[in-house]
Every structure is written in C-alpha cells, then in structure tokens.
Amino acid sequence: MRGTPPLRLWLAALGWGVLTSACEAPGGVSPIFPEPVSANGQNIYNLYVWISIPAIAVFLLIQVLLLIAILRFRRKTQPPGYQPPQLHGHTLLELGWTIGPFLIVAAIGVASFVELQQDFTPRANADFEVIITGHQFGWDYQYPEGFTVHQEGSLTSDVEPFVVPVGRLIRLRFQGQDVVHSWWVPAISGKTDAVPGYDNFSWMNIEPRFAGQKFRGECAELCGVLHYSMQIIVQAMTQPDFDAWVKQQQQAAKPSPSPTRVTVGSSHPVPSPRPTASPTK
User: Fold this and answer.
1) Is residue 87 part of a domain?
2) What is the distance between the terminal CA atoms of the chain, rounded to a whole angstrom?
3) Phi, psi (5° rounding) for residue 179?
4) Taking the model in full, what pTM does it have?
C-alpha cells in the first residue's frame, strides 16, 4: 500500500487550519485576532505582529534548509555508504547559530516585558475603577456608583453585558473568589488572571467610534466543570447612554421599603414592628 505523500498531508493540514480559523467558538471567541478597540489591545496586536515576522522568517529558513537536505542528499540518488560532508569546528557558524537565536529571544523578552508594564499595571490617571471578581462560574462587576452587575455563565443565551462608556480610561481590578480565573476579551486587552487573595490590574479605553458595539471573550483558565460556560460580553456606550444606564442600575439596586400596618380608626400608617433577636443561650 502506497503511503500518502507528505505534500498532501501538509495541504490537508493547511486547509483544515483555514477552515477552523473561520469558525467561531460556542462562547463567542474567534481564533482570528479581532480588530483592537482599545489602546492596550492595539499595543498587544502590534507586538504580536512584530514577533510573528522573525518567527515566520526563522520557520521558512528552517523549512528551506530541511528541504534542501532532504532532496539533495536523499539516499536513492547517492552511492552505497555515502555520507554528506561533515563540518566540525566552524567558529563563525557556531557563533552565528548561538548568538542569533539568543538575540531574537532576548528582543522578544524585552518587548514583552515593556508591554506588560504598560498594559497590566494600575493606571493612576483613570477616570474610574471597576472591580471584576471571577467565581465558579461567572463574573461580578462592581461599579463605583454602588451597584454590581452579575454575569453568570451560559451557553444557551447571551450573558448580562459588562457596560462601559467609550472614550473613558477605566482601571480594571481583578479578584478571584474561589479558584484562579482569567478574564480575556481579545479586542480589548490580554488575558488577566483573577487570583483569590491577590489583585491584578489592567485597563481599557474604547475608541468612540465603537460605541454601540459588543465585544466577546471568555475565561481563559481551566477553573472547573462549567469553565466553558464563562463567556464575557462587553458593551460600549456613549457617555449619555451610559449615564442613563447607571441611573437604571442604581434605581434597581435600591432596597424595597419595609411593609407598614394601619390601625383601625387611624388614617396614619404605623410601621410594622421589627423582630428582635432571641437571646443567645
């Protein structure tokens, strides 16, 4: 039985990769890098492109050299017992393949470290802060106005959106309630872990032209049996729409008034007596 030529395998793998990259996962995150909508997302995208250029160049160089070695020195074209030329003690060649990769990896490391310092540290000049708490299996968004939006995980419908205004610098403080989670919306920022007992930070500043749009993400840290349901939706609004939404949330968060009782023969309501705590034995 004849084996499948390697070229066919490569073409099949390439076709499968293109096909799957065009599909969107159930949680709403596409494998294709989305258009960045915040400055930190744009920085990460630029770094990704910058790293990809030398990575692709090194990959192509290795593949070309590998194909040359395979085709030029294949066994059936050589006499029995043939060995290709052996190189030993070539100082310049050995220095080149040692120093070259080191410089590439060092440059990637320095650029990544600088990006981490810019995008994952507290921003002192933020307009306001939202505390994001990850739990099994959802997210809580605590706003400075005194209310919290609960975003429980689901795959049957869209979750409650995390609403933000465009054109405002928002500091994000991440906390974990039970286990480690990772908040990730590719169009906005990189993955940020929500760790119990430790605060991580990031930020967002969505461009005004994206007002009215929604951006999807999901938990990027395996956190339990329903990890796959922890989708994220961020909804961008204009400042007037956001202010109106905040008023609605504040109104909904107000406690309902306590019931009152009216005595017979009196037109004035009398507050119902509050139960007293029983003495502790």
Assistant:
1) no
2) 86
3) -125, 180
4) 0.71
Residue type, 104: I
Q: For residue 154, give the CATH number of its domain.
A: 2.60.40.420
Asked whether residue 216 is assigned to any structural domain, the reply reads yes
Give the whole-angstrom CA distance, residue 31 versus residue 23. Answer: 8
* Helix (H), strand (E) at residue 113: helix 91-119
Sign of dihedral through CA atoms 235, 205, 200, 112?
A: positive
Within-domain flag for 231: yes
| Residues 6+ positions from 136 with CB-CB distance below 8 Å | 177, 178, 179, 223, 224, 226
Phi, psi of 56 (to 5 degrees): -65, -40
- Structural domain tally of the chain? 1
As a whole number of angstroms, the distance between CA 268 and CA 3 comes to: 94
Rounded-to-integer distance, Cα 228 and Cα 28, Å: 11
Structural domain of 248: 128-252
Q: What is the pLDDT of residues 22-75, one digit of tens each?
A: 444 444 455 567 788 998 888 888 888 888 888 899 899 999 999 988 888 777
CA distances from 46 to 36, 50, 83, 90 (A): 10, 6, 46, 38
Q: Would you state the torsion angle of the CA atoms of residues 83, 89, 90, 94, taken in this order, to the nearest 10 degrees?
A: 100
Cα distances from 129 to residues 71, 132, 143, 145, in angstroms, run 61, 10, 7, 10
- What is the DSSP secondary structure assignment for residue 198, as one 8-state letter? B
Three-state DSSP class for residue 250: helix
- 96 found inside a domain: no
Token pair for residue 173?
Answer: 């403080």
Q: How far apart are CA 44 and CA 37, in angstroms?
A: 11
Contact 233, 185 (CB under 8 A): no
